[in-house]
Design brief:
about 200 residues, about 10% strand, single chain, about 55% helix, alpha+beta, 4 strands, 9 helices, four-stranded mixed beta sheet
Amino acid sequence: MQLYGFHLSGNTRKVRLCLAELAVDYAFVSVDLSVGAQRAPDYLRINPNGVVPTLVDGALTLWESSAILLYLAEKYPHGGLLPSRLDERARVYKWLVWQPATFNPPRQRLVAALAKPDADRDAALVDTLRGTIAHNLEILAEALGGNDYLLGRYTLADLVMLPHLAALQAADFQLPGTVRRYLERLAARPAWQVALAAPA
């Protein structure tokens, strides 16, 4: 099994985190986004989207991090990352879709907006994006309620949130107390330290 990715990429970290949680051996193939390696012809042959990560497992080639996570959770059910009950699996699917479709885009846009020089920065856009992110964090906090995890126990629903919550915290974004404690709980998992480490 080979994972093509960039070790600083949140989506690559999600998959590395999953592999670490499942204690699966794999070869990491670096695709250095900082030099445009994702647009190299050899890489585009396995992922025509020119993004990371991509998982190759024998004859199977998978891109889209959520699809990779689902595949790994089903292939290695011993990890318990995907519930057996349909209604609980459906709740996991909801977060697997919500994170990349709703939660992450305003964070990415805010990073891009703040990277511009002050004179070129759109203050109204920055305020709007901050408001959207704060609203999304409220949704997450409400979903957690008084629980340690989104489904009451650790699943892919939590795993998919960790790298992107960590990125928000690293950018000094104020997290609600419930979400901050949730992130601390997730970040304390040994598999997260494995995912953060630069691959050999």
